[in-house]
Design brief:
Blueprint (H helix, E strand, L loop, with lengths): L3 E4 L2 E4 H19 L4 E2 L1 H8 L3 H8 L12 E2 H11 L6 E6 L3 H7 L9 E8 L2 H5 L7 E3 L3 H8 L3 E4 L3 H14 L3 E4 L12 E4 L2 H9 L4
Parallel strand pairs: 5-6, 5-8, 6-7, 8-9, 9-10
Antiparallel strand pairs: 1-2, 3-4
Helix pairs in contact: 1-2, 1-4, 2-3, 7-8
């Protein structure tokens, strides 16, 4: 049976939660373009899924949309945003502010999607600040105290592979519940912690198969 995450009073499978995030991004673009309603076929095409899958995912909210008219863009976007817990900016920390970490810290698109990187941690914070990073950068020894004080639940992990497991152990012990992992390693965590892996080399390897 597929694992589920309980958000509010709705029990939604993790794969469906991922698709809801894609739907929300598509709806945001429709809103920006002044579109008021969208059909399941159009939204599904924009999200890269089949219309039947989209309708199944949106059925978690009960009866939604009007036959022949489609879904109201603003209402559906708000409903998904609230379900995903994006009513307010979600604080995030970043651990490992080397080249990749610093690039992520300079990215300004997180807030648009409902996330705020509030601090970074590195063994050499002075070097990170020298890269033009404006987000506060602290020594990694301050990690646990900051998480406890600020009640942060999400972390981005960009440390070298040999340190990744030890760092994630510290994060989980301090109260982190979700980790976006850029280190090319399968991390071992407790069942109540969710890890999403971003392996850039693996993604390129996958793409290379289709290159002729």
């Amino acid at each position: 049976m597929e694992n589920s995450d309980k958000i509010g009073k709705i029990d939604i499978p993790k794969k469906a939660i991922y698709r809801l995030s894609i739907y929300h991004r598509c709806l945001q673009k429709l809103h920006d373009n002044g579109v008021d309603t969208v059909s399941s076929t159009t939204l599904a095409r924009a999200a890269g899924v089949k219309p039947a899958q989209l309708r199944k995912d949106l059925a978690y909210f009960g009866q939604f949309g009007t036959r022949g008219l489609g879904y109201p863009v603003d209402i559906l976007s708000t409903t998904i945003r609230e379900t995903l817990g994006r009513e307010h900016l979600q604080p995030v920390i970043l651990v490992g502010a080397g080249n990749l970490g610093s690039a992520l810290l300079r990215y300004h698109g997180f807030e648009k999607e409902g996330f705020e990187v509030v601090a970074a941690f590195d063994a050499n914070p002075e070097a990170t600040r020298a890269r033009g990073v404006t987000i506060p950068v602290f020594p990694d020894s301050d990690l646990e105290e900051f998480i406890a004080t600020k009640s942060v639940k999400l972390a981005i992990l960009c440390v070298p592979v040999e340190f990744a497991q030890a760092v994630v152990n510290r994060l989980v012990a301090a109260g982190i519940q979700g980790v976006l992992n850029f280190s090319p390693i399968v991390l071992e965590v407790t069942p109540d912690v969710t890890v999403n892996n971003v392996d850039l080399a693996l993604e390129l390897e996958h793409l290379s198969y289709f290159i002729r």
